Amino acid sequence: MHPYLAEFIGTLILVLLGNGVVANVVLPQTKGNNSGWMVICFGWGMAVFVAVWCVGPYSGAHINPAVTLALATAGKFSWAKTGGYIAAQMLGAIVGATLVYLIYRDHYAIGDDRGAKLATFSTAPAIRRTSSNLISEFFGTAVLAIAILLAVDPTVSFETNAANLPSLTIGLGTIGALPVGLLVCAIGLSLGGTTGYAINPARDLGPRIAHAILPIPSKGDSDWGYAWIPVVGPIAGAMTVAYAYTLLDI
Q1: For the chain, how are helix, strand and coil distributed in percent, rounded to 5?
Q2: pTM given for the model
Q3: 3-248 placed in CATH 1.20.120.450
Q4: Rounded CA gap, 180 and 191, in Å?
């Protein structure tokens, strides 16, 4: 599988399952309605697990522009491929969010809570304050990035080309993807209560674009005034950690 296609599919799966669990919790008359934050965090963790397990051997399963930029900053990924990876991630996120809408269409139709509908696509702060929201996204993604960088096996190349793609394995097969999912679950449970922990620009911006385009009944606006925070915060957090990683020569 071409690495760009793998990133598209991986991010599609991530958003389909991750935003899908949010839809199951917050939309009316679903089987999981009002099941709470624990279910959302666990669902997102499992969404990451499944996405990484599916496409890790083909692209490294970045499925997150902040991770791609962090790996490039740390010298573990080619800058020349970052644009293609990020474009594939964004497209995958848009398609994944669209599928969530199609699956839960009847539940969108009967609900009138605009905030809940937007929450199934993108994040929003519990308390809206720019500095605090940026800090939350910065440090949440910093934890994600440093954990990924420290977990990288130095014998495995993240350069995705035909010569070394067969060697890109994830630890002990499928189970090797589980720590990444548990990491995302842990970040959500510990640090996600402030902004909903986007920690991934594609995960937030792609579905927000889908929300703006799709014919969702009584959907309200897409909160574009907030949209830059879950993009800038994660990128800044991931790249800062990656730069520190290179300075410390870990």
Answers
A1: 70, 0, 30
A2: 0.90
A3: no
A4: 16
Q: What is the C-alpha to C-alpha distance for residues 98 and 214, in angstroms, rounded to an integer? A: 8
Extract the tokens encoding 56: 């890790």
Mean pLDDT across 25-39: 97
CA pair distance 128, 189, nearest whole angstrom: 20
- Which residues have CB under 8 Å from 52's CB, separation 6+? 10, 61, 63, 170, 177, 180, 181
Q: What is the pLDDT of residue 175?
A: 63
pLDDT band with cut points at 50, 70 and 90 for residue 250: low
The DSSP annotation for 9-36 comes to HHHHHHHHHHHHHHHHHHSTT-TTTT--
Return the domain boundaries, the chain.
Answer: 3-248
